[in-house]
Amino acid sequence: MPAHSCAGKRAPMTWGAPVSAPYTVESALPLAVPALSNALAEGFEGYAVSIPDDPVAFAQRLRGEQIDLASSLVAVVATRPVGLALIARRSDTARIAALGVSVSWRRHGVGAALMRASLAAAAARGETRVMLEVIEGNDRALQLYRSLGFEVQRRLVGYERPAGSGVAAPICEERVNLVARDVVAHMKEELPWPLAVPSMLVSGPQARAVRLGPASALISVSAQSIVLRALVVPWEQRGQGHATRLLRALAAEYPDHRWVVPPLIPESWGRRFFTRNGFHEQPLSQLEMMVSL
């Protein structure tokens, strides 16, 4: 008896014909990291969030977000990159980690061409969905993504708090993988890609994992700020002030540091907790979007 697929046949997805233009869409793999870093910086020039041309930070981002240069694409005019699509991959999911086009080449279909090629390549690799985040209010990007079948999954917000004193307590140093284990055990929803465990496990030199009682956290400390990357308490011990005590203990250790929670937190998570602990919501928010292939 011939074998057959239990899932049945899926109709092929299409995203339109390739754009005829004076540029080509090519693999990013042959380009050196400094050239890609420069292309990314140029692609985000003038946007709400700029990205500096920093090859070291770019290389760290590749590792931290599982960006695959062999799957990433560049739009090229006469050997010069004028657009860049960074593609991250995990299991059966791809993510548009960044899409940028140089100022002089915007509104020439470069972004659309990169997106179409990225989606077609993801489907050819057998991936079943593609994710991305877009700044809320970037209407042109939203229009493009929706035209390609992306739908909003949830709104992502961030929080900030000014520097201030805390309440000292004996904080224990922890291993990052153990904080990641707690996150997996006690989170019911899928984490946004940049906050998920694979990203957590690739910590930069400024990362610090800590624990106070049942509460654990992963932070990144710079000269003036603390970025809160993860904060978790077991389900059965929530609502007892453990997370607040850990934040206060860290504030006592870093009284001159302001606090930042990147705009990657689903808005349904922790709003009351952050407000109660003196945080206010950042003006910049994002939309997490997905298309099934």
Integer tally of domains: 2
Percent strand equals: 25-35%
Assign the structural class, choosing from mainly alpha, mainly beta, alpha/beta, alpha+beta, or little secondary structure: alpha+beta
CATH homologous superfamily placement of the largest domain: Gcn5-related N-acetyltransferase (GNAT)
List the defining traits of the structure above.
293 residues; alpha+beta; 27% helix; elongated; disordered N terminus
Question: Summarize this, please?
Answer:
This protein is α+β, with helices and mostly antiparallel strands and 293 residues long.
What does this structure look like?
With 293 residues, the chain is an alpha+beta fold. It has helices at 33-43, 55-64, 110-125, 139-147, 176-186, 197-201, 242-253, 271-276, and strands at 24-27, 73-77, 80-90, 93-101, 129-135, 151-161, 172-173, 207-212, 215-221, 225-232, 258-266, 280-281, 286-292. Strands 1, 2, 3, 4, 5, 6, 7, 8, 9, 10, 11, 12 and 13 form a 13-stranded mixed β-sheet that branches. The longest helix is centred in the middle third of the chain and has 16 residues, at 110-125. The chain is elongated, with a radius of gyration of 21 Å. The two termini are 30 Å apart. Mean pLDDT is 91; it is low at 1-17. Pfam families: Acetyltransf_1.
